[in-house]
């Protein structure tokens, strides 16, 4: 930590000692009205995050097409785009829609980078094109990200994060900016370091929402996949962070795959982010709709209705002139069924997409014929139940390519 950052932190701690913050009053001020208490005693204000359950940003997974599928399944979730480096936008601004898809309420664009001017310019492009929220990647440990000195590397230089955000504000970025980080990086894994990181950013920039992955990461010696499993999950660290900074919005990320866990987390923090469970089983969102959002079974879309709506979207993409390959456009459909029939469905779906030069309208026609022939007529909840029951027998959902941002 630089002497400049250390000096700023010491000044902030001194200010807290002289005029301690009324944390309860600060939390209440967020919503402007009385704030209820959860079972944990934490002030809870659901208006902090209109949709507190989020789908995590995952490279090569949360493409614009995958997010469209998630929105079709349910509009009740915050959806994060895969991380895009700022230079990709600055040098190819006309491709912005191809990177992120159409903007809508609840879609959050995640940017990566460490250079002030390109990050600010990219953020302004995001805002000017109608996207409503921006997230900074300060947690990805991939070698490519390390080489560019961003992602989790930035946890070692919090002043750089501050400078980036201040530059964004300086050139006119007004949409909400959030930060997604880890609980620690390499040997900088003390709770004090995490608090200093949060305190510096939240007191010197407009950022009030932090998404915290409850694992530290090792930048050397572990692959991105190992960094999702080898460092132990420490949910209690994020819970303590929420207690110590009740005036901030804290979302937890890492290791949740049941509706019961989601309910429990939202008693302790403001939001929860789920990744691989949705990647492996997108219909999990339908299950959460039923359990947490209290959506009646009669109002849940069946898997077949979801596929049909997505295929209509594919035809729209074809008319627009999508630059993406057939495989990328159709990939979101592959994990909608579980069990033995799910394996057969994926095999036949892959065959239907080939050859690579096949026009998308022909693929749509053939997928519809395939579904009719296979007679998939179960409801979304039934399909989800099969996927869950088959989870241990079928462990083919993990992708070594996936990097959570």
TrEMBL record:
Residues 55-352 form the DUS-like FMN-binding domain. InterPro entries: Aldolase_TIM, DUS-like_FMN-bd, DusA, tRNA_hU_synthase_CS. One of its GO terms (molecular function) is flavin adenine dinucleotide binding. It catalyses: a 5,6-dihydrouridine in mRNA + NAD(+) = a uridine in mRNA + NADH + H(+); a 5,6-dihydrouridine in mRNA + NADP(+) = a uridine in mRNA + NADPH + H(+). Residues 383-397 have a biased composition (Acidic residues). Signal peptide: none annotated. The keyword Cell membrane does not apply. GO terms for biological process: mRNA processing. Residues 375-405 are annotated as: Disordered. Its cofactor is FMN. Keywords: Flavoprotein, FMN, mRNA processing, NADP, Oxidoreductase, RNA-binding, tRNA processing, tRNA-binding. PANTHER family: FMN-LINKED OXIDOREDUCTASES SUPERFAMILY PROTEIN (PTHR42907:SF1). This is DUS-like FMN-binding domain-containing protein. It comes from Linnemannia gamsii.
